[in-house]
Amino acid sequence: MGEIPGKWKGSCHKSGVVCNRKLIGAKYFNKGYKSVVGITPNGTTRDTDGHGTHTLSTAGGNFVPNASLFGFANGTAKGGSPAARVASYKVCWPLGCTDSDILAAFDEAIHDGVDVLSVSLGGFSFDYFSNSIALASFHAMLNGIAVVCSAGNYGPFNGLVENSAPWVTTVAASSLDRDLTNIVTLSNKKHILGKSRTVWELPSKKLYPLINSFDAKADNVSIHKARLCHRGALNPLKVKGKIVICLRGSIDRCIGC
């Protein structure tokens, strides 16, 4: 990419992330979190759970050839605006995100000279005067900045869309017609079609016993964690050589996958 535009005033905090001509800003905000929670989180701009990385890449990730999911859907991946410069403003920590940190990040982004703000967080506060994202987005809009916010992880029922202020563009997920499927064949010859990311096949003529995850619970582990197949929640001796049935997590994925 070419030189960074001269209007850009941002920078990277010296805390684990190095800027370049694509990533031109990275800052974190935790003073509000410290005042509310009483502890100071590890001060770093680096993403520790993957959420910020994938949302920023979805918005402005560059072209990545030969991308796939364990060999599935091989092709070129890219974000919505692959030629865009990107900057990260980290406001969320292990126990959540505070209004003051969110407001501070918006102020900093406005000062730095961003053109678009992509905000992948939210809540169910419909009173704009008590909603930090709505308030901050309004000020960004007054400064000529387009604000795009996530609609949340709930639905498709009424009243569950987050970030619905009229001065923001609210983006929701949609369904698609591409499934990564696999078939489980039971001993009674019944076939069950399911979604799977596994590319390795079991021997087609061999049957494996089924076991419910809670029946394989490890000692001193709650039934809840065992049902979801949390890491370390199952007794390895009880599940060895078996197909384990787990419940999915609180959002549309299996926590233990």
UniProtKB/TrEMBL annotation:
Residues 17-193 form the Peptidase S8/S53 domain. One of its GO terms (molecular function) is serine-type endopeptidase activity. InterPro entries: Peptidase_S8/S53_dom (IPR000209), Peptidase_S8/S53_dom_sf (IPR036852), SBT (IPR045051). SUPFAM superfamilies: Subtilisin-like (SSF52743). GO terms for biological process: proteolysis. PROSITE patterns: SUBTILASE. Keywords: Hydrolase, Protease, Signal. Belongs to the peptidase S8 family. This is Subtilisin-like protease. It comes from Dendrobium catenatum.
